[in-house]
Structures are given as structure tokens and as C-alpha cells.
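Homework-ish question, so no full write-ups if that breaks the rules, but can someone show me the predicted structure for this set?
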Amino acid sequence: MRVPPKYTQVLAVTLLGGATLLTLVVLVFIIVFVLTKGLPTVSASFLFTVPRDMGRAGGILPTLIGTVLLPLLALVIALPLGVGTAVYLTEYTRATRVTRMLSFGADCLAGIPSIIFGLFGFIFFVVMLHMGWCLLAGGLTLAIMILPTIIRTSEEAIRAVPNAYREVSFSLGATRWETVLKVVLPNALPGIVTGIMLGIARCIGETAAVIFTAGSSLRMPTSVFDSVRTMSVHFYILAREGISNENAYGTAAVLIISVLAVNLVAYGLMHRFISRRTR
Amino acid sequence: MLVAFSALASLLLIAVFILKEGVPFLFKYGPLNFLLGSIWDPQAGQFGIYPMIVASLWVTLGAMAIGAPLGIAGAIFLNEFVPRSVLRVVKPAIELLAGIPSVVYGFLGVMVLAPFIRAHLGGPGLSVLAASVILGIMVLPTVISISTDAIGAVPNSYREGALALGATRWQSVHMVTVKAARSGIIASIILAMGRALGETMAVIMVVGNAVKVPHSALDSARTLTANIALEMGYATGLHREALFATGVVLFVVIMILNALATSAIKAGSRRS
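A: Not a homework solution, just the prediction itself:
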């Protein structure tokens, strides 16, 4: 028996619309739920005092500092490598087997799950290079993790710079390097910053790769060789070991707000970048 | 320009170190004993990861059973049945949600989903089902984002052709648009599978972590990733090598999934 197309149309739209609505409701529910449960805990003293009794009482200051330092360190390492790779791929070579291999490497790296990064960082930086669990080991591991994001976004941003800009620069007698430095990179900057923000957001939310490389010490870090605990790790430990649900919700709320804020800035920049390009 | 090789070099470094730590163990213990052994008891020197392989498989398939239909339905609906302006607001919003840390999903699984399952369906609550639902939700942004791009890339003339032949909107969608965007949609599912299989912290929190072959969706189980993360903190010697060997299995499967996704995307771009 054939159902008339008129009815399948109505049925399909209802089902598809329902599925879409369900998706949106679930995703919005997650954010609203965590914020309503967590925000009452969040206050200036929660943010800026040290935790007591394993995090059962007190605030989250050391983890806040860890969450700022670790992504920053990862970025300092990944940014020159990532942008350098992007510049090389776009400005200094044509598409060859080598560039294809380099892009393939970046793609593969992007697909590796974070627990594998954690395993690698643990055996290589922590054990083999005798760093121990520390900020530096965590930063290096996260740098590798966000490298593909930085490469991809920078590459796209650089490719979007019109060729005419480069030609004008060359005609003025600039070398290729001067052109890259003074013409290409400044024009690609918003796109590159988008990549940076996305990388930072990924670092903030990361747990598996951090816990095995940067450790989970609750003390204030004084050097890159100290162990730190990020908010994600702190939240994981509070929740998993049932230390304090109240403080776990509070940390989760701060975590979600920071990640969403960083992502929003990234999207804002990307949007401005795209609208400027198409004008 | 040595820096250009940083990504490739890192990839090779990771591959070499994970393999170096894990592969010798595989041959010492016997690959078949390792993969098909059903007892995991590090103290007794028993390292069989068969229960974990089964659990990872079920959790991943369960996540796909939930995430793929919802995600693809969302992508189709947003592309074909609502005004462009809605898509332009909703798509970035959904992508924004991809940034929610995985531990937060896991925590919600523990606080909301597991009690619900325990009360209404029975079992311990922390189960394969709970992990599947949480992972299914987590992969939604990936599926929607990539599928939307693939469907959006289908030329409008295809749709117009179908509509001109008297097809309803839905007929034109499922007979023409979805077929044309097939490779992109498949790629989104494969990438989401990789993400579900590789997810660790959220799964640890909701899957229960019992080392046995799950017999129903309501049973507690332990995935490959959970096994690594739970025991890495204190493992030494042979035990640690066994965990790296678990990592090798995971690494190889994920690399295969990535290669499949890449070739699906390539096949799609070659045709158009």
C-alpha cells in the first residue's frame, strides 16, 4: 500500500521537527540545569579563596590559576608551530606530496582521543624526560593536542587574504618574508585569533589529557615544574569521589561560563572576519 | 621551515611511543589471549580485554543509535524546512555546545540520567544505556555541524529539479538532497563514532566500570578508554604495559575510522 505523498510530507516534517526540537531542548537543558544549580554557589569568595579539606569547603582559586596558566602555556608553544606550519603550507610551497602528507598528519592528530594524548604525555614528558607531573608536561601535551586546530584555522585565514595584497607588496620590492610578516599575517589575524580561542576552549574543557600530565595538586603553582589542577580536573575529582556536589556544581558553572565566553569571542571574531571578506 | 613538520612529527612521536610501550606486551602475552581473554585481573597477571572491547562496541553503537538519527534529522530540518535566518542562529549555537566540557555531560549523567534509569527501568543505573545516551547527546553537535555543511553544499538546482517534477518537499529531500549529500553525512557519523569511542571521562562517570561482558543495556560495564584512565594512575610494570596495549588497540581502531571518514569526504568532493 502506498501512502500518499501529501501525508508522508506532513509526517516527515513533524518527525524531523520533533527531533530537532528535542536536540535543542536537551542541549539547552544541560546549560540551564548546571547554571541554576551552580550559580548560587559562585561568589567572589568562591572564586578567590583557596580550597579547604580537599575542596569540601573554601573556593577554587588555585584551579582557576591552573586553568589560566595551562592553556596559556600550551598556546605559547603551539602558536608559533601552528602558524609557522600554515605559512609554510600556503606561502612557501605548492600542493605537493609533502604538503599533502603534512595536512594528513594534522588531520590524523585532530582525530586522536584525548586519553591517548594523556598516555603519550605521561610516558614521554612525565616519565622519560623526568619532568614529573607538572605545568610544563601538561602544557606540552595540550600544545600537541590543539596544534591541528591552530594549523587549520590559520591556513584558512591566510588563504583568504587576496593575492592582490601580496602582488602589491612584491611590486614595492618587499621580500617574501617581509610580505608574510607585514601584509599576509596582519590581514589573517582575526582568523588566527579564532583558532587560538577555539584551542583555549578545548584546553579549558580537557580532563583526560591533563590529569596524567599536569597532575592534580591543589597547591598554588610557583614554577612550570609544579603540578597544577585545572577546573575541569577539580570538578571531575569533586564529582567522581563525591567530595562535594555543591562545590562541583559551582565549579561546573564557572567552567561552562568560561568555555562559552571564549567560544563566543571566537565566533564573534570569525563572523566579523567573514563579513569583512565578503564585502 | 622545520616547524611545518611539527604536526606530522608529533603524530609519529605519539604513534612510536604508544606502540613501543604496548606492542612488546602484546607479543609477550599473546595478541589473541589479550584481545579474547575474558578475565582482567592485574594482580593475578590476567590481562584479557574482551569484556572492554564488547562494552566499547555497545556503548559506541548505542550512542550512534541515539545521536545519528537525531543529528541527521536536525541537519535536514534546519537546512530544508526552516528559513535560512534560523539556521544561521541555531547552527553556531549548537556548535557552541560542542565546547561544553565532557566531564559536565558525565556529571549530569550521574545526577539526572542514572537515577532516572534506576527508578524506571531497573538495574544499577550507571550502565551501558546511560553511557550511550550521554555519548549520543555529546556527538550531536559533531553530526549536525558536518551534516549541515554537506546538505547545504548540495546545489539548489537539484532541489528545484525535483520540485519541478512534482515531488513534495520531503520527496525531494529524501530522494535527491540526502542522496547527494550522502558522503558528508556518512563522514559525520564516522567522526562521531571516533569521538564516542575515544571519550573517556564522561564514560567513566556513567558506565559503572564493572569488568564483565554486559548482557543487557542496563548492565554496568567498562570501556577500553575507562580501563586506561581508571588504572593508569597506579599501574606499574606489566600492568602499565597492558594499559598501553589497550591504548594501541584504541589508537589503531580510531586511525581506521579517521581514514574512512577522510576518504568518504574525499569521495564526496571528487563527485561534485
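Now go work out the reasoning yourself. Hint: Residues 44-278 of chain A form a domain with the MetI-like fold fold (CATH 1.10.3720.10).
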